[in-house]
């Protein structure tokens, strides 16, 4: 079935290109130390989960897993949606029927990220707080990668599906040979003696399988070359507080980042000042007015990259015009925090 985008003005109060889940804070590494794992999980199970999608209300739903959603991810063609909870399970949903078609349980801890293969939607990688990465094919585990010594926070797959990167809470990035299941390199980022400098974001560029981005909790974004990983190609200070996400646009010329300073920023790679310690001095556009101070709220391109969309800690979804940063839509939800917002690839069926 062909999927196409629609003009933003044609959307109602419930955005048709959007799967949005309201979840609790991802501060698992902090809460696990402070409260203990069992107390933390009990609190999470009492949290509310909501989804905003026309003709698809995920809660209440008899098949909806209990507890907090930690991750949602679409396959590249938008036909499948994956989600994970604190139970360590991964659920796979069919976007045409709106039904759960698989529940997978191979990890021992929370699954923090899932990346579908770009060429084959029946294959994907998962990573977890159990320090492992698993390759799945037809919903069976093919092999497990076990080189990380700490909780793995995120992974990225190159567009040709031949390269894999992973990042953990102790600020180590691994580059993998996916055919042999071996680590090709490790990048160790600076770690503060008092705080973990978690790798919160990893993604490959759209046009090159050698270029990838990393974003860390200290607010820095780095551009890397897979062939020469020892030295970053570009490094700049993007957010004065913890960085939540960073990703390329489709032509790889701009980057979109979000942090816990209640700001999202658009950057032109060609004009970034690597020496600046003030992010507002050299970003192209800044998006504000929403609230993000304690949650790992992500930001995404939306509507063929004409808009930017984000959740917020004030019960709303915010949609901005990308070039002018004008707020063009503010959508009220039923919960206090909108944590995960993911546009469906390719638009609405």
Tally of individual helices: 2
Strand portion, in percent? 35-45%
Query: How much helix, percentage-wise, in residues?
Result: under 10%
* Helix and strand run: EHHEEEEEEEEEEEEEEEEEEEEEEEEEE
Poorly predicted segments = 1-62
List its traits:
globular; mainly beta; 349 residues; 5% helix; 2 helices
Structural overview:
- This protein is mostly beta strands and 349 residues long.
- The chain contains two helices and 27 strands.
- The strands form seven sheets. It has a four-stranded antiparallel beta sheet, with no helix packed on it.
- The longest helix has 9 residues.
Task: Please outline what is shown here.
The chain has about 350 residues and is mostly beta strands.
Task: Furnish the topology, listing elements before pairings.
Blueprint: E1 18-21, H1 28-34, H2 37-45, E2 51-52, E3 69-74, E4 80-85, E5 90-94, E6 99-104, E7 111-116, E8 123-128, E9 133-137, E10 140-145, E11 152-157, E12 163-168, E13 172-177, E14 182-188, E15 199-204, E16 211-216, E17 220-225, E18 234-237, E19 243-248, E20 254-259, E21 263-268, E22 285-287, E23 299-302, E24 307-310, E25 316-321, E26 327-332, E27 340-343
Antiparallel strand pairs: 1-2, 1-27, 3-4, 4-5, 5-6, 7-8, 8-9, 9-10, 11-12, 12-13, 13-14, 15-16, 16-17, 17-18, 19-20, 20-21, 21-22, 23-24, 24-25, 25-26
């Amino acid at each position: 079935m062909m999927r196409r985008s629609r003009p933003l003005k044609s959307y109602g109060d419930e955005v048709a290109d959007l799967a949005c889940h309201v979840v609790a804070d991802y501060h698992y590494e902090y809460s696990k130390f402070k409260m203990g794992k069992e107390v933390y999980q009990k609190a999470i199970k009492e949290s509310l989960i909501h989804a905003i999608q026309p003709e698809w209300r995920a809660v209440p739903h008899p098949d909806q897993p209990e507890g907090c959603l930690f991750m949602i991810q679409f396959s590249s063609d938008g036909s499948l949606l994956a989600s994970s909870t604190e139970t360590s399970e991964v659920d796979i949903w069919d976007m045409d029927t709106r039904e759960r078609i698989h529940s997978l349980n191979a990890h021992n801890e929370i699954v923090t990220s899932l990346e579908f293969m770009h060429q084959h939607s029946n294959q994907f990688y998962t990573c977890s707080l159990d320090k492992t990465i698993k390759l799945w094919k037809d919903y069976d585990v093919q092999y497990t990668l076990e080189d990380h010594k700490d909780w793995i926070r995120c992974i990225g797959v190159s567009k040709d599906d031949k390269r894999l990167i992973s990042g953990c809470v102790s600020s180590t990035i691994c580059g993998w040979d996916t055919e042999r299941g071996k680590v090709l390199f490790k990048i160790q980022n600076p770690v503060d003696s008092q705080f973990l400098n978690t790798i919160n974001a990893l993604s490959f560029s759209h046009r090159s399988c050698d270029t990838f981005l990393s974003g860390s909790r200290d607010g820095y974004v780095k551009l890397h070359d897979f062939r020469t990983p020892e030295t970053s190609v570009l490094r700049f200070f993007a957010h004065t507080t913890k960085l939540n996400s960073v990703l390329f646009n489709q032509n790889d010329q701009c980057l979109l980042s979000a942090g816990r300073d209640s700001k999202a920023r658009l950057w032109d790679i060609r004009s970034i000042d690597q020496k600046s310690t003030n992010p507002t001095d050299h970003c192209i556009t800044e998006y504000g007015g929403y609230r993000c101070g304690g949650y790992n709220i992500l930001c995404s391109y939306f509507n063929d990259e004409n808009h930017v969309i984000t959740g917020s800690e004030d019960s709303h979804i915010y949609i901005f015009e990308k070039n002018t940063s004008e707020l063009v839509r503010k959508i009220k939800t039923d919960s206090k925090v909108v944590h995960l917002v993911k546009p469906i690839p390719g638009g609405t069926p």
